[in-house]
Design goal:
- Helices cover 81% and strands 0% of the residues.
- It is mainly alpha-helical.
- The chain has 2 domains: 51 residues, Homeodomain-like (Arc Repressor Mutant, subunit A); 141 residues, Tetracycline Repressor, domain 2.
- Helix 5 packs across helix 9.
């Protein structure tokens, strides 16, 4: 990547982060271009070199940060093979990401109303990953045999758990990067009891 392209990518990244932080503070309705560019330290005119409208950047926030979240979790899990260990690492990595991107939970909640298509696609991508991981672990005997309908329901249960833990323990996550070991251990104990062969 050339210097010019690097600078362009850096500016766009600043705009994404600024937009997400402003949305977290005042919601999509109050997140004006002026507020976003002021937060990013960029002239308002520069904004339109990257996005045609205010709504255009909003449409990209969930896909951009959703991709970053999945990348963060993948980097933590690495080539760990065991299903339960992968789930434990991914569970903690999810909260690490929220700690470093404190705006994401609010952006995601707001997106359900203001940008429903990207919001829906985000959850479908997470669901797809869980389906694949549960199906793999079931095939390889790491967990009990699951039907397709069981894979679907359990995927949604595991996704829901992370979401509601994040809401309930938000202060703890912001202060210490993760939930307590008691929470993680209890969560994993329930997962093992539910899925062990």
């Amino acid at each position: 990547m050339g210097k010019r392209a690097e600078n362009s990518a850096a500016i766009k990244e600043r705009l994404y982060v600024a937009a997400a932080e402003i949305v977290a503070q005042v919601g999509f309705a109050g997140a004006s271009v002026a507020r976003i560019t002021d937060k990013a330290g960029i002239a308002q005119g520069t904004f339109y070199n990257y996005f045609e409208t205010r709504e255009a950047i909003f449409e990209e926030l969930v896909p951009i940060f959703g991709k970053k979240l999945r990348g963060h979790i993948r980097s933590r899990v690495g080539d760990t093979f065991d299903f339960y260990e992968r789930e434990r690492i991914a569970f903690d990595a999810f909260f690490e990401f929220l700690h470093g991107n404190r705006f994401f939970a609010r952006v995601l909640n707001e997106a359900e109303i203001f940008t429903p298509a990207p919001h829906h696609d985000y959850f479908e991508s997470i669901l797809k990953g869980y389906r694949a991981e549960l199906a793999r672990a079931s095939r390889e005997g790491q967990i009990r045999k699951l039907s397709a309908s069981e894979v679907e329901v359990i995927s949604l249960m595991l996704m829901s758990a992370r979401t509601y833990f994040a809401l309930h323990y938000s202060k703890q996550i912001h202060e210490s990067r993760k939930v307590s070991s008691t929470v993680t251990n209890t969560y994993m104990d329930v997962v093992r009891r539910a899925l062990s062969p």
